[in-house]
Design a protein that fits this description.
single chain; about 250 residues; alpha/beta; Metallo-beta-lactamase, Chain A; seven-stranded mixed sheet; 6 helices; globular
Length: about 250
């Protein structure tokens, strides 16, 4: 199976609109970050985790022509606002979308026309919403995936485990019920926002320590702000850990 990082940025993306800081002005392509999302592929099948505001450009760059399913971590704008851009490929075949009940309610408020009845097929994406629950495995278009509860501030949202890979973005804590579900990982993908503490995201040091405790063979960090210089941070990380970057491909 192949995983491609479609985006590794926080909600603003990097560069940030109106900012001329060193990172936003950087010519290093690894400091240019679209909103966080990953694509999983196995043979002809494709599964997406999160569809943020950059989905259209991400999909065009990847020459995406179909999706077998979408999984949503939570309902914040940087993770769901690209759902409307699923329209052209969903007209070929309806796309299952898996999310927890809170996220489905958020999508319903943001896009009420997704859930309307009647004709108008071309005015909305053809999405089939299914409820995912943390700790309960599911199979979507042949992919066995385990939703995981993770802490995002005072809320619990979803991460996902596929085989021996876990994707935990927008995270500032691993609840006790999830700890045994993220053991024996070959690959951990973990959110790490910035050097300074944040109320709803791991700082770089917190993410590094959490990754050490989980003990995956390889860890890649994601969901960075413009306070993170890719190359500088990469040089400080322990062996087996690295910051991801847009376009990075993993085989697992």
């Amino acid at each position: 199976m192949k995983l491609t990082f479609w985006g590794t940025g926080t909600s603003t993306g990097v560069p940030v609109v109106g900012c001329d800081c060193a990172i936003c002005s950087s010519e290093n392509p690894r400091n240019r970050r679209r909103r966080a999302s990953v694509l999983l592929e196995q043979g002809p099948r494709k599964w997406l985790i999160d569809a943020g505001p950059d989905f259209r450009s991400q999909a065009l760059d990847a020459k995406l022509d179909l999706l077998d399913a979408v999984f949503l971590t939570h309902g914040h704008a940087d993770h769901v606002l690209g759902l409307d851009d699923l329209r052209p490929i969903s007209w070929k075949r309806a796309i299952p979308v898996w999310a927890d009940s809170v996220t489905i309610d958020s999508v319903r408020r943001a896009f009420p026309y997704f859930f309307s009845k009647g004709d108008g097929k071309t005015s909305r994406p053809q999405l089939e919403f299914h409820q995912a629950q943390a700790g309960i495995p599911l199979v979507a278009a042949g992919l066995a995936i385990l939703p995981l509860a993770i802490c995002h501030g005072d809320s619990k949202i979803l991460g996902f485990r596929v085989g021996n890979l876990a994707y935990l973005t927008d995270c500032n804590g691993i609840p006790p019920e999830t700890v045994p579900l993220v053991q024996d990982l070959d690959v951990l993908i973990l959110g790490a926002l910035r050097p300074n503490p944040h109320p709803t995201h791991f700082s770089l040091d917190e993410a590094t320590e959490t990754a050490r405790q989980i003990g995956a063979k390889r860890t890649f960090f994601t969901h960075f702000s413009h306070d993170v210089d890719h190359d500088i941070w990469a040089r400080t990380l322990p062996e087996g850990m690295a910051p991801a970057f847009d376009g990075l491909v993993l085989q697992f």
